[in-house]
Amino acid sequence: MSKDEKPYFVHESSYVDEGAVIGEGTKVWHFSHVMGGAVIGKGCSIGQNVNIGSKAVLGDNVKVQNNVSIYDNITLEDDTFCGPSMVFTNVFNPRSHVSRKDEYMDTLVKRGATIGANATVVCGNTIGRYALIGAGAVVTKDVPDYALMYGNPACRHGWVCQCGVKLHLAGDQSTCSGCGAKYKLIDDTLQPA
After folding, report:
1. Residue 183 burial (10 A CB sphere; 0-12, 13-18, 19+)
2. Contact 72, 89 (CB under 8 A)
3. In whole angstroms, what is the distance from residue 59 CA to residue 48 CA?
4. Which of 91, 94, 60, 99 has its CA nearest to residue 74?
5. Of the candidates 104, 133, 131, 128, which has an alpha carbon nearest to the alpha carbon of residue 118?
6. pLDDT (tens digit, 9 = 90+) per residue, 50-97?
7. Taking Cα atoms as reference points, which of 96, 90, 89, 137 lies closest to residue 113?
8. Do the Cβ atoms of 158 and 148 come closer than 8 Å?
9. Cβ–Cβ under 8 Å, residues 87 and 55
């Protein structure tokens, strides 16, 4: 690789501002903008028409589908998935005539979580590890690890395995029908057994 070659791909219609950090093997597709200061890990896929703010952090192997904006103060840990046209917010009460940049709230999406198409994640919340947020859901509170959430506002409708298959509890235990992983429910918290 020559000194001018980058270890990642950026489509010619996209912009990556100076000061952005992008990991090896990441692909930034059509009409996207990565602002200076943004940090994107290795092996990520940034879809068409995606905007990534200057204070956004993406881990490794993150998949961001088309038409998603990842604003300042949003962190996506490794192996997370953002479905097409899902929405993050970063201010709780925005007004055009009032600057609230000093009021941005942190949003954390933990390792392996999936957010479905057209879902909305209201700022200031944490989505737990391997949680699955259904298409069109509106997340207004913290989401537990492995939770299956959908609706408006999003409510828990069960649990999912790390592989994404819905779990069926027998008492306080479950074995995934997809991969065979075992889980145990302890104090309304699902944990690998």
Report:
1. buried
2. no
3. 19
4. 91
5. 133
6. 999 999 999 999 999 999 999 999 999 999 999 999 999 999 899 999
7. 137
8. yes
9. no
